[in-house]
Amino acid sequence: MEKIKDMLASAGGSIVTAIIVAVVGYFLIKYIMKFLRKLKGFEKLDQTVTRFTLNLIKWLLYVVLIISVIGILGVPMAQVIALLASAGVAVGLALQGALSNLAGGILLMILRPFNVGDYVDAAGASGVVHSINLFYTVILTIDNKRVTVPNGSLMNSNVVDYTAEPVRRVDLVFSCAKSEKPAEIQQCILDAVAQSKFALQDPAPFAHISGGSNEAMEFTVRVWCKTESYWDLYFELNQSIVEAFAAKGVKAPALRVVNDKA
C-alpha cells in the first residue's frame, strides 16, 4: 500500500493533467466539428461526401486526443506503438467484418454507386439513402422504417439505383376480350396516354399486342417519364386507361371455366 501511495503521489500531477486535457479536448473536438459543419466549403460539397468527411475527421481527432493523454501519463510511446501494433493484429482478426465495412465505406466515397437521397435496392433493402457513415449506410423504406446496412455488404452486392437517370419507363399490361379490334384498343390506350401531363412524347409511347389466350388479348404499354414523376404516371395510367376502356365499352376477357370433375 505504501508503494501504491508513492506511485499515486508521484503520478498525481500527470493524472490530473491528463484528465483536464481529456475533458478540454472532448469539448474542443465538439467545437471544431460544429465549426466545420458551418464552413461554406463543406456546404458546397455533395451531402454524401460532407457527412463521410466529417465523420472521418471526428474519429481522427479522437485518436489524436487519446494518444496525447497517453503521452501525458508518461507511458513511453515506443511501447505504446508496439502494443498497438500487436493489439491491432488481434483486433483486426476479431473485427474482420468491421474493417470490411470501413473499407466498403471508403470505396463508396470513391466509386459513388449512389448518393444520399437516391432510391436504391441493395443488399436486401429498398428505400431512400438517408446517410452513408464509416461502417454502415442508413436506408429509409417507403413506410419509413430505418434499415442499417453494413457497407461491406453493399460493396459485395448488386445495387439498383432508381433515381440515377433523369428518365424512367413505366411498363403496364392490360387485357380485353378476344372479340375486340386490336387497332381500336391500341388507339384507345394511346389517347389515354396523350392526356397525361407526366408522359413524355420522346421516346414515343408504345402500345401493342404482346400475348393472349383463347379468351383474351394482352397489350403491353410502355411510357417514358421524368424519374421524379414515375409513380404519378404509374397510378394515373392504371386509372385513365381502365376508364377509357369503360367509356368505349371495351369488353373484359371472358372467364375461363375449368371442369375438374373426373
Explain what this protein looks like in three dimensions.
The protein has 262 residues and is α+β, with helices and mostly antiparallel strands. It has 3 domains: 8-94, Helix Hairpins; 105-161, SH3 type barrels (Roll), CATH 2.30.30.60; 167-247, Alpha-Beta Plaits. Helices cover 52% and strands 21% of the residues. It has 8 helices and 8 strands; from the N terminus they run H-H-H-H-H-E-E-E-E-H-E-E-H-E-E-H. The strands form 2 sheets. The protein has a 5-stranded antiparallel beta sheet with strand order 4-3-2-1-5. Strands 6-8-7 form a 3-stranded antiparallel beta sheet, covered by helices on one side. A hairpin with a 5-residue loop joins strand 3 and strand 4. Helix 1 packs antiparallel against helix 3 (47-72) and helix 7 crosses helix 8 (230-247). Mean pLDDT is 83; it is low at 257-262.
Name a few traits of the molecule.
3-stranded antiparallel β-sheet; alpha+beta; 52% helix; 5-stranded antiparallel β-sheet; disordered C terminus; 3 domains; Alpha-Beta Plaits; 262 residues; 8 helices; Helix Hairpins; SH3 type barrels
Helix content: 40-55%
Order of helices and strands: HHHHHEEEEHEEHEEH
Using only C-alpha atoms, the radius of gyration works out to 31 Å
Structural domain tally: 3
Distance between the termini: 97 Å
Second rung of CATH, namely the architecture of the largest domain: Orthogonal Bundle
Q: Unreliable runs, pLDDT <50, ≥5 residues?
A: 257-262
The percentage of residues in β strands lies in: 15-25%
> Helical region count?
8
Query: How is the biggest beta sheet arranged?
Result: 5 strands, antiparallel
CATH topology of the largest domain: Helix Hairpins
Q: CATH class of the largest domain, anyone?
A: Mainly Alpha
Q: What do the pLDDT scores average to?
A: 83
Shape from CA axes? elongated
